[in-house]
Every structure is written in structure tokens, then in C-alpha cells.
Specification:
This protein has helices at residues 9-16, 20-30, 49-58, 123-132, 140-156, 161-175, 182-199, 204-218, 221-234, 239-251, 255-268, 273-285, 289-302, 307-320, 323-336, 341-353, 357-373, 378-387, 391-404, 425-433; strands spanning 5-6, 35-36, 45-48. By secondary structure, it is mainly α. It has a domain at 340-438: Serine Threonine Protein Phosphatase 5, Tetratricopeptide repeat (Alpha Horseshoe). A three-stranded antiparallel sheet has the order 1-3-2. The protein is globular. The protein starts with a strand and ends in a 5-residue tail after the last helix.
Length: 438
């Protein structure tokens, strides 16, 4: 969007004719659509005027949602038009990558606001639901804020199926930041999606969240496919469901089908960079790095700081044997994505492959220390041991990763990081445990 980009808090504040303090508060509390070049540095930000304008429009009073009869149990505080929170017009997720996610970020959620059985929806619950939704390149703050606001919408209106579905998807996205065990976040997502479907069996977003949980938590890939196909049938406009399904098909090595759904996601949402990256990933994991690089560079022409496009471009350099370029690219993407675990694992692996063993071991020591302080994904440590050629240690940590239900951004069935382990009986046993054959 040439000419549409604001490059600092000062420019964003000037756009609204407000103080920097005010717009920072809006970003934290009210989901103002602000992007970060490095998620761990709050000052390195940018925003698009078009997205800011959509956010401002969402702050207008809701005129199409009737007020429910107010009873002492249902009464909610008033929110004036000037201070009512807003939302991003579309939610892109975990296209994870943390930029994830932004990738992960990453989630275009198509959620219904119509109440069950014709009952008027609580307007305050709708506003909380709107506040919860966030956009591409969402970071920790936006996702955690989204979870709080979905929970508030549910507190105000427990029958709000779309809020339950949104909460499920937010917990899927949270998984990729590696700060909470995937067994916990995915279990929450599965439970929340199930509740959404009890309230509204036609909620396509909930079916898609259930599909991801079945694939990643239960390793029930047949059920996952069934859930995804049902979600896409019910919400064909949901590009994220199509891209997510493509990613599960990559894990299953069904590359032709994966490419079909990745292209459908692009057709459905042409401006969503996550779908372009997923198309590149199909080529990358299918052993076609040149075609993958075409897709990643196409995304980077639109947004040079897109975390996942930068990240997988580094992976493609590794596949091409350009190790020095891979190290530089993966260092850059690790910073862009806020040094999330999976980007650290790939960077550490590249350092090891490049012969920079001391640097790789420093990263191992750092990650081991983080595990001592709290949860940190085991698969990240497995990757670096694999790069160092330490097969037994890599398998030990990979088996722990399976115990944690956090096996990697993509599964070992397809990830070339583990190519050196494939002939080992323990690795084949692990794939059988994941229901991914041998």
C-alpha cells in the first residue's frame, strides 16, 4: 500500500490527532492495528492508514444490534461512542509465525454475531468480540488481549458461539509463541471449539479450530481432515481455514492437495501474505526450493519485514546449500518475529550446519536455561542437536517434544531438519506414535 504506511508512533498519533500515549493505549487495550518490525521492541512500529481507518469505523456505535431487555443480571456498563473499543476489520493469524505467527499471524475470522434462537445479542458482548479480533503480524500483546476480550464477551453472553470459536483460534495462535505448553493451549482450543459447535453446529471457524486441534493435539489426522472440510464447506470465505488445512496436508506429505488449498486461500484473500507463504512452503517441503523462493520473494515485495516470508526464505537458502545466506536470513527473521522459539531453533540449526558449533552451543545453553526457568519447547533443542550431528540427543529431545504435544512448526514427517535421523528406529517409532507412518 504505497503512501499508506505510517512509520512511527509519532505519525500514528498525528493521524488521529491524539498523543502518542493515547494511541499506545489503544494498541494495547483496544486492538489498534499496529505492526512491529521486532516484536520485542515496542518502539519499532508501523501502521497502514487503511487499517487505522477501518479500526476507527469499528468504533462507531452499533446501530444494527438491538438492546436486550435489561435485567439486574444482564445489565452492563455503558460505553460511549468516543471510548467504545474497536477491532481490526479482519483477523489473520498464526500464519504463525508469529509475526507469527506473525504468522502463526495471522487469522481471518468470519464470525457470526447473530444470537442463538433469535435472542438479541448483548451489545457489550459484541463490542468485546470486536475488540478481540486482530490482524496479520499480530504479536503476543494482541493475541493475549484478544483472549481476554473473547473471554469477556463470553462472560457477558455465554451463548455467543462466534466468541467461543474466536477464543479457540486465539489459543491455537498462542501455541506458536512457545510460552505455554501446546498440550494446554491446544486442549483449551479443542474444548472451546466444541462449546462453539454445541451452540452453533454451523460455525465454520469452530470446525477449523477443531481440525487443527485434532491434527496437532490428538494426532487424529483423519478426524482433522473431516473437521477442516466441514469448516471450509460452511465458511468458504475463510481463507485461514484453507491455509491451515494446506499446512496439515503438508505434514501428511500430500503436496498436490496442499497446493490446491493454498491457492484457494490466495484466491479467497488475495492481499493476505500468509497464503502466499503457505504456497511457498508446499514447494519447499516438496523439495522445490526454487519455486518456494519465488513465493517468499513475492510476499516480501509487498511487505519486506514479513516474518514468516523472511524465515522460510532462510530455510530455502539452506535447502539450496547457501549456508552463509541462510544464517544471515534466519538471524534477521528471528529478530523480526520477536525471537520466538521455532525461529530460534531454525537459526541455531543453521549455525550448526554452517560449522559455527560454539555459537550453536551457546544457543543450546540459553534454551536449556529457559527450560529451567519455565516452559520452553523441547523440539527447539532437538533441532540444534540434529544440526550438530548429535543423533541420540536429538531423538531424546524430539521424544520429549512429542510428550509435550509441541513437535514443531511443521511435523518431523516432513521437516528436512531431521533428514539425518530418518533411518533410525527411534525416529520411525516416533512417526508411528504421531500416526504419520514410518
Amino acid at each position: 500500500m504505497p503512501g499508506d504506511r505510517l512509520e512511527s508512533w509519532k505519525e500514528i498519533a498525528a493521524y488521529f490527532n491524539r498523543s502518542e500515549r493515547t494511541v499506545r493505549r489503544w494498541e494495547e487495550k483496544e486492538a489498534l492495528p499496529v505492526h512491529r518490525l521486532q516484536h520485542d521492541k515496542r518502539g519499532s512500529v508501523y501502521a497502514y492508514a487503511q487499517e487505522l481507518e477501518a479500526w476507527r469505523e469499528s468504533r462507531k456505535p452499533l446501530v444494527d444490534v438491538p438492546e436486550p431487555p435489561e435485567t439486574p443480571q444482564e445489565a452492563a456498563p455503558n460505553v460511549s461512542p468516543d471510548t467504545s473499543p474497536g477491532s481490526r476489520a479482519q483477523w489473520f493469524g498464526i500464519s504463525l509465525a508469529v509475526m507469527l505467527v506473525a504468522s502463526l499471524g495471522l487469522l481471518l475470522l468470519i464470525g457470526r454475531q447473530a444470537p442463538a434462537a433469535g435472542r438479541p445479542r448483548n451489545p457489550e458482548a459484541v463490542r468485546a468480540y470486536q475488540r478481540a479480533r486482530f490482524g496479520d503480524n499480530a504479536g503476543r500483546v494482541q493475541i493475549q488481549s484478544g483472549i481476554r476480550n473473547y473471554q469477556e464477551a463470553i462472560r457477558l453472553d455465554p451463548s455467543f458461539a462466534a466468541a467461543w470459536a474466536g477464543l479457540a483460534t486465539a489459543h491455537v495462535a498462542l501455541t506458536w509463541f512457545g510460552e505455554v505448553a501446546a498440550g494446554e493451549t491446544m486442549a483449551q482450543a479443542k474444548s472451546e471449539a466444541a462449546q462453539a459447535l454445541r451452540l452453533d453446529p454451523s460455525d465454520g471457524v469452530a470446525w477449523s479450530a477443531m481440525g487443527w486441534a485434532s491434527h496437532y493435539l490428538d494426532w487424529d489426522h483423519a478426524a482433522s481432515e473431516k473437521h477442516f472440510r466441514r469448516g471450509i464447506e460452511l465458511a468458504p470465505e475463510n481463507a485461514v481455514a484453507q491455509a491451515w488445512f494446506a499446512e496439515t496436508l503438508i505434514d501428511l506429505r500430500r503436496f498436490d492437495e496442499a497446493l490446491t488449498f493454498a491457492k484457494r486461500a490466495q484466491d479467497t484473500s488475495p492481499r493476505w501474505l500468509g497464503a502466499i507463504v503457505v504456497s511457498g512452503n508446499v514447494h519447499y517441503f516438496a523439495g522445490r526450493p526454487d519455486l518456494a523462493m519465488v513465493e517468499y520473494r513475492r510476499a516480501l515485495e509487498i511487505e519486506p519485514n514479513h516474518g514468516l516470508a523472511n524465515h522460510f526464505l532462510g530455510r530455502a537458502y539452506l535447502a539450496k546449500g547457501n549456508v552463509a545466506a541462510a544464517v544471515d536470513q534466519l538471524r534477521k527473521s528471528h529478530q523480526l518475529m520477536g525471537e520466538v522459539p521455532f525461529s530460534g531453533g531454525d537459526f541455531g540449526y543453521a549455525l550448526a550446519v554452517a560449522g559455527r558449533r560454539d555459537d550453536a552451543r551457546k544457543m543450546l545453553a540459553e534454551f536449556a536455561a529457559r527450560r529451567q526457568r519455565g516452559y520452553f519447547p523441547a523440539f527447539v533443542i532437538a533441532q540444534i542437536h540434529a544440526g550438530l550431528g548429535e543423533t541420540s540427543n536429538a531423538l531424546d529431545w524430539l521424544e520429549r517434544a512429542a510428550d509435550e504435544r509441541n513437535i514443531g512448526y511443521y511435523m518431523p514427517s516432513v521437516d528436512p531438519v531431521y533428514d539425518s535421523l530418518r533411518s533410525h528406529p527411534r525416529f520411525r517409532s516416533l512417526l508411528q506414535r504421531l500416526h504419520l507412518g514410518s
